[in-house]
Amino acid sequence: MTHGYGAYVLRVYCYSLSHPIGLRLQHHSDQEEQAKAKWADVQNNYQRRADSSQPRRYRAGYAKQERASHEVIEARAKATQIKLDASQLTDPKR
């Protein structure tokens, strides 16, 4: 009779160990799916904001400001340039 009781206890023990693990794995899978769905929502919101803000920036005059800034940067770069050709480098009088 002890052999039958021991086998029964062993089966109950194994079932109690395996059952919660299966539930935890399912719970982990559900959490992972929820996290992926929330991250997809974040990415969609960023994309929607980027798509909707682009036309507003140009309507607000940012394109003109960027063009003017670019012209100023080019003018400063040209003002500090030094232009030399090969003959100026080899001529000791210059």
Task: Map the helices and strands.
Blueprint: H1 2-59, H2 62-79, H3 86-90
Please give a structural write-up.
The chain has three helices and no strands. It has one domain. Helix content is 86%, strand content 0%. With 94 residues, it is mostly helical. The mean pLDDT is 77. The chain has helices at residues 2-59, 62-79, 86-90. It starts with a helix and ends with a helix.
Defining traits:
single chain, 94 residues, mainly alpha, 3 helices
Short description:
With 94 residues, this protein is mostly helical. Helix content is 86%, strand content 0%.
Mean pLDDT: 77
Work out the strand percent: under 5%
Q: State the distance separating the first and last CA atoms.
A: 114 Å
Task: List unreliable stretches of 5+ residues.
Answer: none
Structure classification: mainly alpha
Q: Estimate percent helicity.
A: over 70%
